Fold:
Amino acid sequence: MSFNAPVNSILYLLRHGYGMEELRQYVSDDMLGDELVSDILNGAAAFATDVLAPLNKIGDEVGATLKDGVVTTAPGFKQAYKAYCEAGWQGLSAPQNIGGMGLPQVINVAVNEMLYGANMAFGLCPMLTASALNALIAHADADLKDKYVSKMVSGKWSGGMNLTEPQAGSDLGVLRAKAVPNGDGSYAVSGQKIFITWGENDCSENIIHLVLARLPDAPAGSRGISLFLVPKIFVNDDGSLGKRNNVNAIGLEHKLGIHGSPTCVMDFDGAKAWLVGPENKGLACMFTMMNEARLFVGVQGVAIGERAYQGALSYASERVQGRVIDGEENAPILDHPDVRRMMMDMKTGLMGARVINLATALAGDMSKVSTNEDERKSAHAREALLTPIAKSYGSDMGVTCATTALQVFGGMGFIEETGAAQHYRDARITPIYEGTNGIQAIDLVGRKVRRDGGDAMFALITDIENIANEAESLGQGFGQISNTLKTGITHLKTATQAIVSASDKDALAAASSYLDLCGDVISGALLTKAVIMGLKAGDPHANAVKDILAYHAVTLLPRAGSYLAQIQAGGEPVFAYPASQLADL
Structure:
């Protein structure tokens, strides 16, 4: 199944997205000029379409294999990875002083959406490398940075995140991996980790594992976890590779999807390691890696949803079945009202999730480049607030679009040869890994809303109220859009107040509904802003995006009222039914 990167959609939102005006005040045209951004995105689109997309199916069918501790990726992956590194894509947003291009994260998000859409299984390796690199930049000492980061920026060395153990999934406080001082400043790490994405591969020359483990006499629970750098192959003082470390892949998981991505069981047997960050502060250090990864999982959801949508659109444009109402004989099923509805559901949902992803990245960029301390703090709070929404809303939308696309195919969607089933299988992991979407909802409610009394969320609400007011003042057919958006914002404000004042049990029971409400309302507001800015700029695509926004206003925004009712009901309806009767009456 072919793939065409959605360059026009992404470029439109980049040019007119909420926050771009502010970012341009601090980032020069050398980094964010229209011509440069267009060139980068078109280059990424060509690489995604020509190099990665043709390997998507073989990655699914052949997958990765493990023999004698050696992982072999699917045919073509190794060559594609080399081409990816040589083109410089790995260092797109890495700082210039360590060999990267230093471009804003929002550009990196745009590029990676296209790469994930072409071949999500392949794209997981660069994603983990970038996230591990950022954790090292933020927390490692100078010697470790000097030794490891430049090769990770180039992609010659990949990175891995080693958190999960058989008994320690979402609750990392019970992990058992241990680290013992060697007496020379290094440590010996022992233990087993599972679900390690690209933990072993034949594409990169070395793999730099970041591993959570406990030091002797460390406090119990999550407060006693430290972070360690464990190279697959030792690095000599001159930068050359030396002997193999005691870290090995001892198993590959047989998964529902993303078969081209090796998901490893990793064994650390006294592997030599170096501490990253302070002792017993490893979880905080790892969150630098995890938070970025969570944003990019939201990007993956949109990407695989886009690919599923494109497949459905191609099929619906060619497939003839039944007589179309008010249509010609032998018209394609795309002309059937219900099929067209499904296409609009996907198109609109993807644009809404995409604009949230970009807004999250923009907030992160502003938190780094702004010269105003208050603005930096506000942007950092905005990024933290939006991250769980981006992860969950994007990944849920990806699954929704993948299953809707399969429905468009009908019976042929259930047949592997069409590719529709692979999209569903690949998309289904995104609401699960890097913290399930239920955990994202708990994070949003507990850490991002209730902890500060809702200040960050109310600040966002004020901003999107201004968008709704601007839309109302313009007229130009914004009447229904602005009215529906204002109603949704009112529901979001009421829901936020309810979440802040609720008991812990009621807040947690309503957390997922609250996150979904946030996604629908915030995406509607951000799309409204993008339409307003596009119309002002005379962008030829602005009216098309406005049509998408109008559909959003009658399909997604009205759901806010239903979510509010669930939030206000709290935990009572959830727990009223006795647990003893859940299996059967």
